[in-house]
Please model this.
Amino acid sequence: MDKDDADCGPLIECTAGTLDDEVLQQLFVSTQQTNMELCMKYAVERILLELFDSAKTTAFEGHEEIIAKSGAWFPHIWVVRLLILSGMLIEKVADSLTAFRECVDPPSSSSHAVS
Model:
């Protein structure tokens, strides 16, 4: 693990497999942002197990709910999305304030002479 070319994938997967609580697995797997394959594997396996478990699922769930459950395994993506949206909102508010300020106090076309 100390070497640059070391493959930690098997160790990470084995560690994730030993965790018996889904929330702990989500936490562990989601911190492995560079190992997208592992994130996808656990997301798909858990969601498919839940969908096909007749004791829990009585009817097919909507795709929105399945997507939301999948997103729980990729929280870093949601954080990036929120950062992008907040940046867009800040930009929009700044543009609106600038436009409002120009309407209320338009720049004068005459120069002020200094005496």
In short: The longest helix spans residues 75-104. Residues 9-73 form one domain. The chain is about 65% helix and 0% strand.
